[in-house]
Design a protein that fits this description.
By secondary structure, the chain is of the alpha/beta class. It is 33% helix and 15% strand. The strands form 2 sheets. Strands 2-13-12-11-10-9-8-7-14-15 form a 10-stranded mixed beta sheet. A 5-stranded mixed beta sheet has the order 1-5-4-3-6. β7, α3 and β8 form a beta-alpha-beta unit.
């Protein structure tokens, strides 16, 4: 990747090793209880012990194969992918990719889903489906990605059909959100349907409309409830245009007290990055399960406004060391969304090591599929391609997703060792800034070092 010090980043934190052990589990993904994202534990920065596990799931799986206690509550789900398999592990939730021998060995002990033929550049089915149940909300926030001009709930009858098709396709987890999903009349029956079909449900909410009557069934039906907390007071206002941070903190507290597994989502803007240590202090005693850092994405605002809100080059480069420090100080598990992969890659770990650690970039149309309130599908919740029809047809044959997968990142990405895992950074951001989803991520240090057109460098905040 070149000399990262010359790009204004800290000295790389670790160097990858070529002698790391290679288990029969081909890739142990980090626990997926938040739906998606990379768990950025400091273990990934310390590859000095060749046999150290990056995820609890492979170790638990190996113990089970050696005669240990079986998984709790439910059998693992094995989706057969040709000669290999993708295994969903129930406790703690996680996904691992298996070789042919281990896939055959586990067949009698799992609930098996035949994945069928996988489309080029993707798994045979999404691991995670993200479903927008409503665009309604009690507030109107700046930078919202939901159409607030004509808010509506999803048609429940059509949604039921699609959820059943997701289960048949082999989806493991469904993340249900909005809008303010707690306003949707169909939320509870949707969560019950997901459970009854053998999938795992999660909910994402800003917490604006949480009522006591929600608590028992949310805790019962959801593996995790994610609450958005985009700063505190003035910082929250800078992101959303209103201050509802106290309401979000209260929702986190009440859900934890009710016995729920609670995650916190924080949108990273130029303002919120500087507030992360203060937010960490507030969350340290909350008993929440994990904290997910989500890179801000383009919304209805113009490109110049998005660039103004986006974290700076220096802020992005410092995120991983900051996450490790906050984990050490407060014991907070921190997860990066897939759009932050380029800013993990700068710290000296090679692509193979990062992949073995379960770290990866854009998962849109590879292992994630998104449905909006109109019943249309996209590569991810932020992607512009909207595709009608069944989830199976959208996943396997839809031109919009096929084009998304086949769009090969251009220079300098095509010469980067991380390209197969990173997939060129965030394609949604690249398209918003350059007009081309296959362009390199404008904030990626390799793209910057390669030299981009001067106007693009100025617009992305590089001079």
């Amino acid at each position: 990747m070149g000399d990262t010090e010359n790009l204004g980043y800290p000295v790389p934190l670790a160097k990858g090793r070529s002698d790391l052990a290679r288990p029969t589990i081909l890739r142990g993904a980090t626990p997926q209880a938040a739906g998606a994202g990379n768990l950025v534990d400091k273990v990934a920065l310390d590859p000095s012990a060749p046999n150290r596990e990056y995820s609890a799931v492979p170790a638990l799986l190996n113990a089970w194969l050696d005669g240990g206690a079986p998984p709790l509550r439910t059998r693992p789900i094995l989706r057969v992918e040709g000669e290999r398999g993708t295994l969903w592990w129930p406790a703690p939730p996680g996904v691992v990719t298996l070789d042919r021998q281990l896939t055959a060995r586990l067949r009698p002990h799992c609930r098996v889903v035949e994945g069928g033929d996988a489309p080029a550049g993707a798994l045979s089915a999404p691991n995670v489906a993200q479903v927008r149940l409503t665009s309604r909300c009690a507030e109107v926030c700046h930078g919202c990605h939901v159409d607030q001009a004509s808010p509506r709930d999803a048609d429940f009858d059509a949604l039921q059909i699609h959820v059943a098709e997701l289960a048949k396709l082999g989806v493991f987890e469904v993340v249900v959100g909005g809008g303010e999903v707690l306003l949707a009349e169909g939320l509870r029956p949707t969560l019950e349907l997901i459970r009854d079909l053998g999938m795992v449900a999660h909910v994402s909410t800003p917490g604006f409309s949480l009522c006591d009557e929600h608590l028992p069934w949310l805790v019962e039906l959801c593996a995790q409830i994610n609450v958005s907390l985009d700063g505190i007071h003035a910082t929250y206002t800078s992101v959303r245009g209103i201050d509802r941070s106290d309401r979000a903190l209260d929702a986190i507290r009440r859900l934890v007290q009710a016995g729920g597994r609670v995650g916190v989502n924080t949108q990273l803007t130029a303002n919120t990055v500087d507030m992360l240590p203060q937010i960490a202090e507030l969350l340290a005693g909350s008993q929440m399960a994990e904290w997910r850092w989500i890179r801000v994405k383009p919304a209805s605002e113009g490109v110049e406004d998005f660039i103004r809100r986006h974290p700076t080059h220096d802020q992005l480069g410092a995120l991983w060391p900051l996450a490790v420090q906050l984990q050490s100080d407060h014991g907070l598990p921190i997860r990066f969304d897939c759009a932050l992969y380029p800013f993990l890659a700068i710290h000296g770990l090679d692509a193979d090591t990062m992949s073995s650690a379960g770290l990866r970039g854009c998962s849109g149309a590879f292992s994630i599929l998104a449905r909006d309130e109109h019943g249309q599908w996209a590569a991810c919740p932020f992607a512009p391609n909207r595709i009608a029809g069944s989830p199976s047809a959208a996943w396997r044959t839809a031109e919009g997703l096929t084009a998304w997968r086949e769009a090969s990142p251009s220079q300098p990405c095509e010469g980067c060792e991380h390209v197969e895992v990173c997939r060129g950074g965030c394609r949604v951001i690249a398209e918003a800034i350059t007009g081309d989803p296959a362009a390199g991520d404008p904030w990626c240090p390799r793209v910057i070092a390669h030299g981009t057109e001067p106007g693009l460098r100025r617009r992305a905040g590089h001079g």
